[in-house]
Amino acid sequence: MYRLIKTLNRRALIKAIVAAVLTVIFVLMGSRNLQNFDPALIAYLIGTVFAVFGIAYRYSVWLQRPPTRLYWRRSMQFLFSRYFFPYLWRSIKLFVRNIFFQRFIAFRSRRRWFGHFLLATGCMLAFAITIPLTFGWIHFILKPGDDTTYYAMLFGFEAGSFQLGSPLAFIAFHGLVWSSVLVTIGAVIMMKRRFTDGGLIATQSFENDWLPLFLLIAISVTGLGISYDYTFLEGKTYQFMAVTHAITVILFLVWLPFGKFFHIFQRLAQLGATLYKAEGKRRGMATCPHTKEDFATQTHIDDLKKVSKTLGFNYDKEDGTNHMDLSPEGKRSALANAHLNARKEAGKLFG
Amino acid sequence: MPETNYDQEMAFFVDMQRCIGCHACEMACAECETNGQESMIHVNYVDRSKSTQTTVQVCMHCEDPTCANVCPADAIHQDEFGVVHSANTSRCIGCSNCVLACPFGVPKKMEEAELMMKCNMCYDRTSVGKKPMCATVCPSQALFFGTKEEIARMRPDSVPVNSFLFGKQEVNTKVNIMMPKGTDQLLIP
After folding, report:
1. Is residue B6 part of a domain?
2. What's the gap in Å between the CA of A332 and the closest CA on chain B?
3. Which whole-number Å values give the CA distances from A347 to A285, A337, B140, in the listed order?
4. Does A348 contact B157 at a Cβ distance shorter than 8 Å?
5. Which tens digits make up the pLDDT trace of B133-187?
6. Residue B172: inside a domain, yes or no?
7. Nearest by Cα to A196 from B33, B127, B121, B89
8. Which of chain B's residues have a Cβ under 8 Å away from the Cβ of A318?
């Protein structure tokens, strides 16, 4: 055990502990010292705190890699510059477009985007409902003398009300049913691709590509089971439905930092990469000495030279230039020219 | 990765001087299912103002790939056969680090899809013992996929070389280029 702890990344461990402790503090504060906390959800809370710990740990380890660290630092530096407001606005727009709607996937394949959009929307909706409930941030009450109006309490303050039996109540109480349906349809679309696309069949793996889809479907189906039970079975199978659903959700939460689902958190780096490009363009472009055309931002090329040296790659040349000063086309031509010269020197162009 | 039938006796041999610029490889490359019907091979003029010579470039599948090292999202991985795979679509953030760092100028950035794509040696084909698409259609055999014995028979005056020196950086690759006999490394000035 001591050896295991010694192998842990110290900086990441501290950050993960801080993140987990902060989550517990927010739960205590938001639930008004647990008076609004639902003890039936304790297992979900423990799973969520573990997920926060794991995500913070892995994120921190990930940020320590030289290229990731560079993007992180540059993104922060560029965002908190004198162009703060235009860059913030740009990032918000991109967040909506690429994180909420995942529009970039549509350019990879429309059906794939549709499947992913349903999956992601279902998951985001489910998180938006379950996390505040699990943390005790939201709860519902009836007031004395009125047993038809339901009051939503946010952090212990009244945040809205609706009539029981109203369309709004039906929509709100079935929020997780809607998200389960979205997730299941999305997961089936994604599974179909994995059965029919030759490229995916050749490169996919069970643990990275199939297991996440199975898990999402298991969560959705067992969640729908709870709803089915209290709607049509008068709660006769509640125990079974509740336990199987809790097991699948907790498995998901525990696995969240380690498996494919970590890409949800990595995706945010795309915003940083876009900002990096925008600021780089403002600072000036790099021109390829071979094609004489702009091909990247000079900031990017300069940073890449430094990062690659940190990683043990040195493309410096004798004349003081660097191989990375060439555009991709310039590099291909340099290679072809070197090959041609070697053939010429040997006296035979073909052999 | 699923179970494969990747034949490690087979190797890729490139001879840019034999490229006639017919673009057949580009058309064939787009048939590769791991590319999503996008052509990943590069055919371009070496120096159009001086010559009509074209060059062809596939991914060289470096032993220690610079692209994978500079990737901030851990999206590029090398399998047990040494094949360096195209970016993991769920991880790639479209930063272009790999595009700009690759010494051979291979990866392509699909701008709107925010995705890097590159040749992965037609993994849907090579993983089941078939040849990459480009090598099956190249009429001049600038691209050849076969055994070392076959290429030695076909090119008696050449040797396969898989070591390159870019400035101070030595890069060793899985893919070979055909060089004059007695050469063991290609120096790129």
Report:
1. no
2. 6
3. 41, 15, 20
4. yes
5. 999 999 999 999 999 999 999 999 999 999 999 999 999 999 999 999 999 999 9
6. yes
7. B33
8. 167
